[in-house]
Design brief:
Blueprint: E1 4-8, H1 12-24, E2 28-32, H2 35-44, E3 49-53, E4 55-56, E5 59-60, H3 61-71, E6 76-81, H4 86-94, E7 99-102, H5 107-125, E8 133-136, E9 139-142, E10 147-150, E11 153-156, H6 159-170, E12 175-177, H7 178-185, H8 194-208, E13 218-221, E14 225-228
């Protein structure tokens, strides 16, 4: 799958180097040096992945990220910034970003993060996307829109959340091992802890279970993984 990639970076040397090297890796790179240019690219190009600097001359990359989540939920976001505070990282992830890379970074690390995000994107969209809404317990999920609706409230899904939920749904009635989850949703270099997966499952249960404190739809299989009951359709 050829990836159209938006690169938002106002530093000429950084932007030029990243653009050239990503193109050598086979990506179609659309480089914007301002938020205004990035918005134009988003309007005219079907972008799959966005690398967003945070501090731009005409505003904040976080604001653009918020716009992308609202209007282009299918776009994978990775923030690039010199501001490596915990608060900034949390803010970026809360906006639905897949990752947050602090400058200066090694290009190989950036490439690995992009490849990991691209892998999740391929899993969500191929071999064929799940079309329309599907029911899981008290929730409706739209994988095309990266949305889940529960008890009248609509929530955006990150690409990691969407990939994990799609994996459970496609394997409903079967036990999905932690190794399978890590292989699809994360990668070896991302080093997620077992608790990370548990937190995702706890979040899903709040949305889909009639009683999240006594789960009957997403079951924990001790020492193995998780099972989504077949009643989901």
């Amino acid at each position: 799958m050829s990836i159209n990639l938006l690169l938002l970076e106002d530093e000429i040397n950084v932007g030029s180097t990243v653009k050239d090297r990503l193109q050598m890796e086979g990506f179609q790179v659309h480089w914007a040096q301002s938020i205004a240019q990035a918005k134009t690219i988003l309007q005219n190009t079907q972008v799959s992945l966005a690398l967003l600097d945070v501090q731009l001359p005409d505003g904040s990359g976080f604001d653009l990220g918020r716009l992308i989540r609202q209007k282009h939920p299918e776009v994978v976001m990775v923030f690039l910034t010199a501001a490596g505070t915990t608060e900034d990282r949390i803010h970026g992830l809360e906006l639905g970003a897949e990752d947050y890379i602090v400058k200066p970074f090694h290009f190989k690390e950036l490439l690995l993060r992009i490849q990991n995000a691209s892998k999740r994107l391929r899993f969500i969209e191929e071999p064929a996307p799940i079309v329309g809404e599907i029911k899981i317990g008290k929730a409706s999920v739209n994988f095309r829109q990266y949305e889940i609706t529960s008890e009248g409230n609509k929530y955006n899904l990150t690409h990691k959340e969407c990939a994990l939920l799609k994996l459970l749904f496609e394997k409903r009635g079967q036990v999905v091992s932690r190794d399978d989850i890590l292989n699809v949703v994360w990668s070896e270099d991302e080093y997620p802890t077992p608790r990370t997966i548990d937190n995702f499952i706890l979040k899903f249960r709040k949305w889909v279970e009639p009683d999240p404190n006594s789960p009957s739809l997403i079951r924990s299989i001790r020492g193995v993984g998780y099972l989504l009951e077949r009643e989901s359709s």
